[in-house]
């Protein structure tokens, strides 16, 4: 089968098109004929080596890239009873999707409705599950909540905005340009502003009568995190779920006390996919929101195994405002 693998860490030039054997599923795994794979920052970070020492995401080279996909089950392991050949499924947080076939733990796999295409399922399963656990499990956002979402025009940011509004929250959003601000507004954000070198915090405080928001979702990191503290109410929550601008390496916990006894967390999706039932529950809610029109995911780019480097370059240059997928099957 054809696959995209890396033997060393680096830029898009380390992506290799190879022909390898179709893998066989273990006792608790399923073999899936991949129809589409999502293209994510996690793929870029895997290629760059950011997970080379991670315990949460223990992916090591050499490896086949792609941690999110959708396709059809073709074979099940001896101990798998929840899936059969022909099932339409999607998965995330299991590497190997940049290939014609992938072996995936059955506990990471979710069925997809017939009305959801493979491309949309592959675009939705990782970022949708991420937005779902951040809102429901970590922040418990609901009616009357206030939240600030950084990078609101990005893939996860767009979903956070829509799902937070669906839950009845008031949404503040930040972006880096007027073009991206328009995207955040189109997806329902109530208040949209530019980062403006941290002055977004002043605008949030002004709009909330000096109180600040209940929770900040910060995937930017170094350039926004301290100002996120300023935008958060006393005893509020700051969720740092990414660091596209780099990590803040000199944070003293004392700062959280000075900012109003804040709570700061750095969660990861893998720790919120405890079992197959949880994976399916999150997927069901995301697919239902897509089907009833409450959630929209723009697939802004479709690529193949022959030009996947272009997608990686677009992600690294922040040129993609929607979600890209790799068309395989």
General description of the model:
This protein is 29% helix and 26% strand. With 329 residues, the chain is of the alpha/beta class. The mean pLDDT is 94.
Task: Provide a compact summary of the structure.
With 329 residues, this protein is of the alpha/beta class.
Comma- or semicolon-separated keywords:
single chain; 329 residues; alpha/beta; Quinone Oxidoreductase, Chain A, domain 1; Rossmann fold; 2 domains; 7-stranded mixed sheet; 9 helices
Order of helices and strands: EEEHEEEEEHEHEHEHEHEHEHEHE
Distance between the termini: 12 Å
Query: What would the principal axes of the Cα set say about the shape?
Result: globular
Task: Say how many strands there are.
Answer: 16
Q: What would CATH call the class of the largest domain?
A: Alpha Beta
Write the layout of secondary structure elements.
Elements: E1 2-6, E2 16-19, E3 29-39, H1 41-48, E4 63-64, E5 68-76, E6 88-92, E7 101-105, E8 109-111, H2 118-138, E9 146-149, H3 155-166, E10 170-175, H4 178-186, E11 191-194, H5 200-207, E12 213-218, H6 225-230, E13 232-240, H7 254-258, E14 263-265, H8 276-291, E15 299-303, H9 308-316, E16 323-327
Parallel strand pairs: 9-10, 9-12, 10-11, 12-13, 13-14, 15-16
Antiparallel strand pairs: 1-2, 1-4, 3-5, 3-7, 3-16, 5-6, 6-8
């Amino acid at each position: 089968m054809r696959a995209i693998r890396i033997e060393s860490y680096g830029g898009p030039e380390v992506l290799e098109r190879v022909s390898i054997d179709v893998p066989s599923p273990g006792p608790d795994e399923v073999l899936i004929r991949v129809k589409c794979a999502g293209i994510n920052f996690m793929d870029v970070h895997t290629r760059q080596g950011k997970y080379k020492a991670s315990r949460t995401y223990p992916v090591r080279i050499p490896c086949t890239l792609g941690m999110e996909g959708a396709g059809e089950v073709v074979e099940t392991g001896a101990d798998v009873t929840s899936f059969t050949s022909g099932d339409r499924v999607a998965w995330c947080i299991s590497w190997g999707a940049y290939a014609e076939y992938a072996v995936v733990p059955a506990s990471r796999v979710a069925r997809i409705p017939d009305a959801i295409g493979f491309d949309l399922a592959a675009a939705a399963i990782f970022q949708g599950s991420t937005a779902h656990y951040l809102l429901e499990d970590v922040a418990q956002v609901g009616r009357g909540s206030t939240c600030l979402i950084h990078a609101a025009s990005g893939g996860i940011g767009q979903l956070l905005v829509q799902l937070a509004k669906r839950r009845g929250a008031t949404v503040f959003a930040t972006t880096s340009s007027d073009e991206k601000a328009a995207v955040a507004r189109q997806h329902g954000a109530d208040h949209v502003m530019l980062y403006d070198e941290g002055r977004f915090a002043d605008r949030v405080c002004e709009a909330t009568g000096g109180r600040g928001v209940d929770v900040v979702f910060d995937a930017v990191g170094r350039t926004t995190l301290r100002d996120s503290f300023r935008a958060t109410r006393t005893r509020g929550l700051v969720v740092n779920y990414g660091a596209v601008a780099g990590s803040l390496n000199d944070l003293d916990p004392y700062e959280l006390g000075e900012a109003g006894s804040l709570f700061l967390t750095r969660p990861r999706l893998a720790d919120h996919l405890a079992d197959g039932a949880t994976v399916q529950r999150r997927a069901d809610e995301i697919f239902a929101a897509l089907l009833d029109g409450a959630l929209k995911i723009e697939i802004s780019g479709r690529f193949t195994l022959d030009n996947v480097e272009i997608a990686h370059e677009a992600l690294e240059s922040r040129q993609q405002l929607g979600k890209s997928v790799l068309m395989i099957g």
